[in-house]
Amino acid sequence: MIEQLPAIVLLLTFLAAPVCSMIRCGDTAWKLAISSAWLSVIASLALMYQVWGGEEISYHMGGWPPPWGIEVRIDELSALVLVLITLFGSLVMSALRESLRPVMRSQRHSLYYTAFLLCMASLIGITITGDAFNVFVFLEISSLSTYALIARGRDRRALTASFRYLIMGTIGATFILIAIGFMYTVTGTLNMADLAARLPEHTDNRMIQASFAFFTIGIALKVALFPLHYWLPNSYTYAPKATTAFLAATGTKVSLYVMIRFFFDVYGIEFSFSQMKVGTLLMPLCLAGILIASLTAVFQTDVKRLLAWSSVAQLSYMVLGIALLNVDGLTASITHMFNHAMIKAGLFLTLAAIIFRVGSSHINDLAGIGRTMPLTMAAFVVLGAGLVGVPLTAGFISKWYLINAALEKGWVALAVLLIISSLMAVVYIGKIIDVAYFKPAPEKHAAAKDVPASILAPCWIFAILTIYFGIDTRLTAGVAGRVAQSLLGVGP
Predict the structure, then answer these.
(1) How many domains does the chain have?
(2) What b/e string do you get for 455-482 counting C-beta neighbours within 10 Å, with b at 16 or more?
């Protein structure tokens, strides 16, 4: 059984999805979905335990050895992302049943869980596959299920947001497919380890250089890197409440993982950063994204949209760590990928709990909820502190590494800019807290109270994890540091 875990962690959710679609009872479908999701968490933690310390797992699907067969390859980085997808996805799913009741008929819940499980399974597939073409296939499955999840929003603008994401996501996926096709044409292989071995012989080949250009644009669009972020704010704003928590935690983070994997492992550092100078391209885009998105978030009046713009800025932090090309920068990028997924999933889920009672995400409608919904709002405050980067929270750890990386380069101005952007986060999180605690609640919301335990408990689990990973960093910064040293070829 232990030897089959790489296949089991994928099949648990992939096989549960079609079964859910055939179940007409929403509660029964939820029980199946949540069971498969939490079993995948157990499998991913077992895989993390196996690769802890730098070991790798190579699993040959169907018994065919690579590069002829399809390989599943798991190392510390992919295991960390695997835990991110399964754990945070399962926590969000734990709150789904209650949050869907007011917005969707029970008979339709099973189809929603089907799309959710398909999205989770495909993200798992992207993370563990060792085949470049399968990365594209799983990306498309995750995108198609995401379009369906976003379109289920009650606001009619959810359909527009889903269609916009469909158009831009298709363009990004097409660029990635062209890049993979060019690599296959030159090297004759799709196995990622085999590609990494063969590509150094073809770095002067124009087709490989074009492949890199297509891949960079395509994956930047999937990551929502400024200025290719146009699809993200509306998708997060108009998607169903709990759906946004799941998408914010997983979708863009897995795309960032693919970016790291291809830049450092497949194409190689020398080709990506010295010959193609991708760091020089990414740096100004990241700085612009951090400043413009943070400033835009400050002036938002809808909390969902505010948090969506905050995600654009935070994603720029992660890509900036890659562009800095040092151990602390890459450690910051990987650590923040995990920490931000946890914090933002918790924030969106807590906001979903507030909307569940108040019926609105407009800041003025949140007046006084700190007194009427004390437990819910307290979780939001803890998670907001993590997003700002307050010491003893997970957000502080990743920002600390990023500032250290900038200072290591001697770029004091960049470190100052990062501190300024964190102060902007203080402003936009602070104004929500101000309204919630220091403004009187309107009469129509005076009867609001904390949400059911099935919704509130996952919110507080995210809040507690934010504090825990701000103190114990072995799973986050510890793993990220070892991975960064390995990718950069630097000794411990």
Answers:
(1) 1
(2) bbebbbbbbebbbebbeebebbbebbbb
